[in-house]
Design brief:
Elements: H1 3-9, H2 23-34, E1 46-50, H3 52-71, H4 79-88, E2 91-97, H5 109-135, E3 139-143, H6 150-157, E4 162-170, H7 184-187
Antiparallel strand pairs: 1-2, 2-4, 3-4
Helix pairs in contact: 2-5, 3-4, 3-6
């Protein structure tokens, strides 16, 4: 499949079959992340891969963090649904910026600029993962609801860097239609 076809055909998958991912395919998806462009070639990513054997422990940790946020009266968005998705997916990859500073910690201007560049670079790595997964017939979901269990997940994984996102991977058990997009003319202008 060519790149433009992959971009148009890729979907966010929220229901997975119980079929495990082949290690070779998983490695290909992870390798695609590492091939992403990055500002100043800093390659600001570290990937923590959680497979089936640790999946129930992961979702227990995620749900504990969500419960804590809920008890503080925070709006937890769709995080409970996300925990159910993570419970189905054979693999969840957490993406960290090892040089990043946690969002609530003080940032000077230089650190903030570095962080913005690094987050964009990590976004490119995540997009590479999603497109590689699609090309290999693997479903994927880019997740940011992990922030409701930020400290719990970082502690469980032993990571001190900045948690950017997670990606679920597995064989799709759904075929969702394309989501609506804003019209081209609404978001693109020529100067």
């Amino acid at each position: 499949m060519n790149t433009l076809e992959s971009i148009a055909a890729r979907r966010s998958i929220r229901k997975y079959k119980s079929t495990p991912l082949e290690e070779e395919k998983l490695q290909s998806v992870l390798q695609a992340a590492l091939q992403a462009p990055s500002g100043k070639n800093r390659q600001p990513w570290r990937l923590a891969v959680v497979k089936e054997g640790k999946r129930s422990e992961l979702t227990r940790i995620m749900r504990a963090g969500i419960a804590k946020a809920k008890s503080r009266g925070e709006d937890i968005g769709s995080s409970e649904w996300t925990a159910k998705v993570m419970d189905q997916a054979p693999v969840t990859v957490f993406i960290f910026n090892p040089q990043g500073i946690r969002p609530w910690e003080a940032h000077d201007t230089g650190q903030m600029f570095d962080d913005v560049v690094d987050i964009q670079s990590v976004g490119a790595a995540i997009q590479n993962m999603l497109l590689a997964a699609h090309d290999l017939g693997i479903g994927s979901l880019w997740i940011c609801d992990v922030f409701y269990a930020y400290e719990e997940i970082c502690g469980w994984l032993g990571e001190s860097g900045e948690l950017i996102a997670a990606v679920c991977l597995g064989y799709a058990d759904e075929t969702p239609p394309a989501r609506p997009r804003k019209p081209f003319e609404e978001v693109v202008r020529t100067v």
